[in-house]
């Protein structure tokens, strides 16, 4: 019996060893094929003299590339460590393979600027499948050419209007004061939750003139479910309750003649898009883009406010000047970068970006580069007294797809901070920033507040 067991164990060991050897051999061969495939396809397109080469780097493992290491670093306290490790070896622009595509990663401000400024003949948006399926084909993040410029222009012009800025100012003051009126001395307040609630109400009013109530609450719940799916399993947007709710709101607005439309002064973004004479702006397109524009109210603007409170908590001296917003954007990196796909071979600054490859312009590495920002990991709002915002500072992207709401984000944050620091003193509890899949505070930024009394600093 013992002999039989030994025999069985030996044969099993041999079988497992053989399988492992075969598996590893297959992986090695696949990896060689993988490299050959992309090197040969790209080198055949290079006909310039002197030759322009693909940036140095590695494509990693077959199919999965370097995605696992990228995500692992993204969850750490230093998500830029993935980039830093490679640019020390290969330079500021290098090749990789992440999210299912061979990718040129740019941590060089000038290369990124060229990519962001290019039109759709050279680059088009390219994002992971889970994002593109959630956003819908008509999303402003994905459409190109004349349609993209038209939608972006309409929304951008409305966001810059004095009428909307006045409305945003009044609404922010209203909702901030309403929220803060409920705060009691020594109460633990979660800043991230409070700012999300405020910003969402303000933005949805600007988008579709929806006031607090049952419809707003339902929309918020549906939208939060949508946000939860952004970086997880793909969901078919046309089938979601959020999409159906928005379509119903927009269809109802189409069936009615808006009084503000007759007067020639649109009251919200839905008005702006419905009043456009182009037949391209369908209900589906408007719904897709309203969803995109709701994201700052749930995500980026509240996070900007929350991070500003965090950095102020760590730097009391800055409270007296409140020159914090640009520095918060630089360090917080709410938008870490953008992804584009090359529509043809593109040469820039001595690099070749092959047709069909993605480009990941990674803002975070630029914003935290010691060569560009002295003591880059130190929160120092006073640095902006001596430096101008150039191509090294891209917290809202750039080019034709520059975030149309950037001025409103600054305005809302300024108003919130003004009321917060003038009405309260606070002590922040321990918390830290989580950088993936979106930037946020792990414990939602808990602070213990005490209302300032008249005559008491």
What does this structure look like?
There is one protein chain. With 457 residues, the protein is an alpha+beta fold. The protein has a domain at 134-451: Cytochrome p450 (Orthogonal Bundle), CATH 1.10.630.10. The chain contains 17 helices and 12 strands. The protein has helices at residues 2-43, 67-74, 81-90, 109-117, 129-135, 145-159, 162-180, 191-208, 214-228, 241-255, 259-263, 269-274, 283-298, 300-314, 325-332, 363-367, 406-423, and strands spanning 93-98, 101-106, 123-125, 188-190, 337-342, 346-348, 351-353, 358-362, 424-428, 433-434, 440-441, 446-451. The strands form 4 sheets. It has a 5-stranded mixed β-sheet with strand order 1-2-8-5-3. It has a 3-stranded antiparallel β-sheet with strand order 4-12-9. Strands 6-7 form a two-stranded antiparallel sheet. A hairpin with a 2-residue loop joins strand 6 (346-348) and strand 7 (351-353). Helix 7 packs parallel to helix 17 (406-423), helix 9 crosses helix 10 (241-255) and helix 14 (300-314) crosses helix 17 (406-423). The radius of gyration is 25 Å and the shape is globular. Keywords: Heme, Iron, Membrane, Metal-binding, Monooxygenase, Oxidoreductase, Transmembrane, Transmembrane helix. This is Cytochrome P450. Pfam families: p450. It comes from Stephania japonica. The chain crosses the membrane at residues 6-30.
């Amino acid at each position: 019996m013992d002999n039989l067991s030994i025999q069985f164990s030996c044969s099993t060991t041999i079988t497992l060893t053989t399988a492992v050897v075969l598996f590893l051999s297959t992986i090695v061969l696949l990896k060689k094929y993988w490299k050959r495939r992309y090197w040969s396809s790209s080198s055949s397109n290079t006909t310039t003299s002197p030759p322009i080469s693909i940036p140095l780097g590695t494509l990693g493992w077959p199919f999965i590339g370097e995605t696992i290491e990228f995500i692992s670093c993204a969850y750490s306290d230093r998500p830029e460590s993935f980039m830093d490790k490679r640019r020390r070896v290969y330079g500021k622009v290098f090749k990789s393979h992440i999210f299912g595509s061979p990718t040129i990663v740019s941590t060089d401000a000038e290369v990124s600027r060229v990519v962001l400024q290019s039109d759709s003949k050279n680059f088009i948006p390219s994002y992971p499948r889970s994002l593109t399926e959630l956003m819908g084909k008509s999303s402003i993040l994905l459409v190109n050419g004349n349609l993209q410029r038209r939608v972006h222009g309409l929304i951008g012009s409305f966001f810059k209007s004095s009428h909307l800025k006045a409305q945003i100012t009044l609404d922010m003051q209203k909702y901030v004061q309403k929220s803060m009126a409920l705060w009691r001395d020594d109460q633990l307040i979660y800043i991230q939750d409070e700012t999300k609630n405020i910003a969402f109400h303000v933005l949805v009013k600007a988008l579709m003139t929806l006031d607090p109530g049952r419809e707003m609450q339902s929309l918020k719940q549906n939208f939060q479910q949508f946000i939860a799916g952004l970086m997880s399993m793909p969901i078919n947007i046309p089938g979601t309750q959020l999409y159906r709710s928005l379509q119903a709101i927009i269809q109802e607005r189409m069936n009615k003649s808006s009084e503000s439309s007759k007067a020639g002064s649109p009251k919200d973004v839905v008005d702006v898009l419905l009043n456009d004479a182009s037949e391209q702006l369908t209900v589906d397109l408007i719904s897709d883009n309203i969803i995109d524009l709701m994201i700052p109210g749930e995500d980026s603007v509240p996070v900007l406010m929350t991070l500003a409170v965090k950095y102020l908590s760590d730097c009391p001296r800055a409270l007296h000047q409140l020159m914090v917003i640009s520095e918060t954007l630089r360090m917080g990196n709410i938008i870490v970068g953008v992804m584009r796909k090359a529509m043809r071979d593109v040469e820039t600054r001595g690099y070749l970006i092959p047709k069909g490859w993605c480009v990941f312009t990674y803002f975070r590495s630029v914003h935290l580069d010691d060569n560009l920002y002295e003591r880059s990991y130190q929160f120092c709002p006073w640095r902006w007294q001596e430096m101008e915002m150039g191509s090294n500072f891209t917290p809202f992207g750039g080019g034709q797809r520059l975030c149309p709401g950037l001025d409103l984000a600054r305005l809302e944050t300024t108003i919130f901070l003004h009321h917060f620091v003038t009405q309260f003193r606070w002590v922040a509890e321990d918390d830290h920033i989580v950088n993936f899949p979106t930037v946020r505070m792990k414990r939602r930024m808990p602070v213990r507040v005490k209302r300032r009394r008249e005559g008491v600093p």
